[in-house]
Write a structure and sequence with these properties.
By secondary structure, the protein is α/β, with parallel strands linked by helices. It has 10 helices and 11 strands. A 6-stranded parallel β-sheet has the order 1-11-8-7-5-6. Strands 3-2-4 form a 3-stranded parallel β-sheet, sandwiched between helices. The chain has a two-stranded antiparallel sheet with strand order 9-10. Helix 1 runs parallel beside helix 10, helix 2 packs across helix 10 and helix 6 (139-150) packs across helix 7.
């Protein structure tokens, strides 16, 4: 039986540690505040925003919610970000993606001050990660590192394969594994011999957005498998990028979907908010 890496449990541990830290900060007269902006009412985005508000409440972080209509112009959104950049009482700013098509996502990401970029998407944050400088790290990859460390999984010297090269998961994930002294290969849709490359991995991180794509043929016996994907199957049940039933017997450890990587993203966002004060 593979070790089940419990993201719910680990994310709760992190949130409890942060709750204690925030209570201490409050006692010393320091408040933490996150501003969350949502444009339009995409149902999935609304669920995420709601979960972020609940996490803030649990930890003791103040949250400001800006729920803007779909018709909001790019200029109006940039003005609001500019205003929040200037506010001394706001530590973190998060614009829930995706934004409506008439707004340039890239422009919005760059408008957020790197000092308040708790999502870790600003080019300055990404550059800092590349060269090992302090800065915010995007939440999902940071959460995966915590899952591995807190589950007693050694990264140093291990052969790590990341499947997927997105700016939000794949690229920062490879840099973080490198920072932990893993030997890293990034595979993607144009990779030849994907099965052979995945089979070399001691730690396999899958973020490709294709339901149950990774079967046991891709996995080395005893590997650690981290599944970042989340989909609904034909029966409306949640599943990941990994065929869990087929792969689990061959792993030493694996994340389930749901309850693996998902809860960690919000826990690390909260961690970035608290760090923004310390920074």
């Amino acid at each position: 039986m593979a070790q089940l890496i419990d993201g719910k449990l680990i994310s709760t541990q992190i949130k409890d540690e942060l709750k204690e830290k925030v209570a201490k900060m409050k006692a010393e007269g320091t408040e933490v505040c996150l501003a969350v902006i949502q444009v339009g009412n995409d149902p999935a985005s609304s669920v995420y925003v709601n979960n972020k508000k609940k996490a803030c409440e649990y930890i003791g972080i103040n949250s400001l919610a800006y729920e803007l209509p779909e018709s909001t112009t790019e200029e109006e959104l940039l003005d609001l970000i500019g205003e929040l950049n200037e506010r001394a009482d706001v530590n973190g700013i998060l614009v829930q993606l995706p934004v409506p098509k008439h707004i340039d996502e890239d422009k919005i990401i760059k408008a957020i001050s790197p000092k308040k970029d708790v999502d870790g998407f600003h080019p300055q944050s990404v550059g800092a990660l590349c060269i090992g400088q302090p800065g915010f790290v995007s939440c999902t990859p940071a959460g995966i590192i915590q899952l591995l460390k807190r589950s007693g999984i050694e990264i140093e010297g291990k052969e790590c394969v990341v499947v997927g090269r997105s700016n939000i998961v794949g690229k920062p994930m490879s840099l973080l594994l490198l920072r932990e002294n893993g030997t890293v290969t990034v595979a993607h849709s144009r990779t030849k011999d994907l099965k052979e490359i995945c089979k070399r991995a001691d730690i396999l991180v899958v973020a490709i957005g294709k339901p149950k794509f990774i079967t046991e043929e891709y996995v080395k016996e005893g590997a650690v498998v981290i599944d970042v994907g989340i989909h609904r199957n034909a029966d409306n049940k949640l599943c990941g990028d990994v065929d869990f039933e087929a792969v689990e017997p061959h792993c030493s450890a694996i994340t389930p979907v749901p309850g693996g990587v998902g809860p960690m993203t919000i826990a690390m966002l909260m961690n970035n908010c608290v760090e923004s004060v310390e920074m």
